[in-house]
Design a protein that fits this description.
4 helices; elongated; mainly alpha
């Protein structure tokens, strides 16, 4: 890849005005810029994944509650009563799920593992930057 970047900077019409030392500096700068760009993309990607995962955990019960309100309203129960009934059903299901300790811990540990994988990838880019700068 270094040869490709060096060839891009050396390919020009006419005479090459850069010395070899300046080309190496430009190549090192381009490598650092690429690593920083990929590091930023990785941070954004894993931030989106973690936030999306926990967002689904928060909004899934609300979606189920709205579906239950629609079902109860379709049966003929008034909307206010069906809303209270739907949130009571969702509250009971949440209570039952919280009592299942292994399931609760597994769901949370998956989200935490996603965050830890993102942190490990971020640190790998730091190691790559250290090797470029030496």
């Amino acid at each position: 890849m270094d040869l490709i970047i060096l060839a891009c900077f050396n390919s020009g019409v006419g005479t090459n005005y850069h010395s070899f030392k300046e080309n190496i500096f430009v190549m090192e700068f381009a490598n650092i810029a690429l690593v920083r760009l990929f590091q930023f993309v990785t941070v954004v990607l894993f931030t989106f994944l973690v936030l999306g995962y926990f967002w689904v955990l928060i909004f899934l019960p609300l979606d189920v509650a709205m579906l239950l309100v629609g079902i109860f309203s379709g049966v003929g129960i008034p909307e206010i009563v069906s809303t209270l009934l739907a949130f009571a059903v969702i509250g009971y299901l949440g209570f039952v799920l919280c009592r299942m300790r292994e399931l609760y811990e597994m769901v949370l540990s998956i989200g935490i593992e996603i965050a830890l994988i993102g942190q490990a990838q971020f640190l790998r880019f730091g190691d790559m930057l250290d090797s470029i700068k030496k």
